[in-house]
Design goal:
Layout lengths: L1 H14 L6 E3 L2 E3 L3 E3 L1 E3 L9 E8 L2 E9 L5 E12 L5 E10 L6 E9 L12 E6 L6 E4 L3
Parallel strand pairs: 3-9, 4-7, 8-10
Antiparallel strand pairs: 1-2, 5-6, 6-9, 7-8, 10-11
């Protein structure tokens, strides 16, 4: 009887470990994925250049170039409360980058955002055009469950 209790305790201990990775839209989140929010989109931001932007399922992947931020940086993606009544509807989106620490180092970083909060409706197939501030191409987003 004592062996069975030890085995049960051992199984419970090994199976209850925390896992920092969670699956979001088919991509593992290793604390590199940020969550986009809805708010007003006229936030102050440090200088940057979006080199590329693409949407894969419910994720927006941005390749961003900036200088500075040698002591870290805080990226955010914020969608406007207002949605343009067109077909499909359109939403303004702003990438916000707050750099910490001054330096002249040029950095290129990939930022991944879960954009499901930016969906027109959280229904499979719901389509919206995202107008990313400072990026010259509109991005079509189709919500996936």
């Amino acid at each position: 009887m004592g062996y069975i209790q030890i085995i049960i305790v051992a199984v419970l201990l090994f199976s209850c470990g925390t896992k920092k990775e969670a699956e979001i839209g088919g991509v593992l989140n290793d604390q590199k994925t940020h969550v986009a929010t809805i708010s007003h989109v006229n936030h102050s931001t440090d200088n940057y250049r979006i080199k590329s932007a693409r949407i894969e399922k419910n994720l927006m992947i941005l390749q961003v170039e900036f200088s500075g931020g040698c002591q870290g940086f805080v990226p955010k993606l914020e969608g406007s409360n207002a949605v343009l009544k067109s077909f499909p509807p359109k939403r303004g989106v702003q990438f916000v980058l707050n750099k910490q620490g001054d330096c002249r180092e040029l950095k290129s970083e990939e930022f991944i955002f879960d954009i499901s909060n930016l969906a027109y409706k959280k229904e499979e197939g719901s389509e919206i055009i995202l107008l990313l501030d400072t990026y010259d191409q509109p991005l079509t987003y189709v919500y996936h469950q």
